[in-house]
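Lab notebook, page 48
Experiment: co-folding of the full assembly
Goal: obtain a model of how the components sit together before planning crosslinking
Operator: M.T.
Materials (sequences as entered):
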Amino acid sequence: ETGVTQSPTHLIKTRGQQVTLRCSSQSGHNTVSWYQQALGQGPQFIFQYYREEENGRGNFPPRFSGLQFPNYSSELNVNALELDDSALYLCASSLFAGSGTEAFFGQGTRLTVV
Amino acid sequence: ELKVEQNPLFLSMQEGKNYTIYCNYSTTSDRLYWYRQDPGKSLESLFVLLSNGAVKQEGRLMASLDTKARLSTLHITAAVHDLSATYFCAVVVASGTYKYIFGTGTRLKVLA
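Observation: model returned without errors.
Model output:
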């Protein structure tokens, strides 16, 4: 059974650019959630994907968007990068079971915007 | 607004001492998680607490949950340097989707 994997592990982008982060969910999991963790803070929920549809969104602007593919892997896209987008981005996969099951986190992607 | 607050935010303690980290949350939830995070690393799951009065223990760490008080505690017994890390509690909320609301984190430093 493979765990949650994210790529790349580190990334440096310039303000105004666009970035795509990738996440492969754990085997058997059909739900992927994305979190942003700014330095010194707890992770904040960005959005969740279930069966290739967005299934809930946190307080993030539309320039944060995502996709989920038929194999349940997912992408997080951020357009028009701002300096405050610098953070650790965590992907979590789970089996959507109605009442909520434990989500397993990937190792994260460290994004630095300069 | 949903809030999950931890205290203290920073904790420096001597090896061998005991201490408790508190996690207060402002909404009802049917589960609460504790995580450990080392610098630059992802989240390591420590405990999941599913019901009122739940208590879990692993090594020098013990977590408990009081859903009526909306309070969870993480108790550290006879701290060792290897426990130095940031600890987060996270409450699962269902508002259209099941998402984790994380606490502010407690940065623990155990001094040898």
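Interpretation: The interface with chain B takes residues 33, 35, 40-45, 48, 50, 55-56, 58, 88, 90, 92, 94, 96, 99-100, 102-108, 110 of chain A (CB under 8 Å).
Next step: discuss with group before ordering constructs.
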